[in-house]
Amino acid sequence: VQLQASGGGLVQAGGSLRLSCGTSGPISSNYIMGWFRQAPGKEREFVAAMRWSGSHIDYADSMKGRFTISRDIAKNTVYLQMSMLEPEDTAVYYCAASPLIWGARTQFNSYRHRGQGTQVTVSS
Question: What is the DSSP string of 88-102?
């Protein structure tokens, strides 16, 4: 599975962006799709994850209520809708996919497939 993240850009604080992560083919229902981000000088952190079947969804605490993860099965694409963006959300955002136990969803290095990142910059 190859992943391609897109949709990043420059946005003002309070604005919205939708990131997309296209995959190279159909995704098995047991796969977990994850979004992570890495800000300059900081460690990569978990943002959100969902099982492709839709049975499980989770967010990092600081993203709850502002970010929404979803997927379009027909397009083999997972999305991250981000709203109420803050300068602290500035980072490179990565998508990842893997057959994983749900408990491993926050561990980027556990994902079998990892895409290149897309830059999100939020200006104050």
Answer: GG-EEEEEEEEE--G
Structure tokens at 92: 């490179």
Q: Please provide residue 26's backbone torsions phi and psi, each rounded to the nearest 5 degrees.
A: -60, 145
Residue with tokens 């799709």: 33
Q: State the CB neighbour count (10 A cutoff) for residue 113.
A: 17
* DSSP secondary structure of 47-107: EEEEETTSS-EEE-GGGTTTEEEEEETTTTEEEEEE-S--GGG-EEEEEEEEE--GGGTT-
3-state SS, residue 108:
helix
The backbone torsions φ and ψ at residue 121, rounded to the nearest 5 degrees and listed phi first, read -125, 125
pLDDT digits (tens, 9 = 90+) for 29-62: 999 999 999 999 999 999 999 999 999 999 999 9
Give the whole-angstrom CA distance, residue 56 versus residue 20: 19
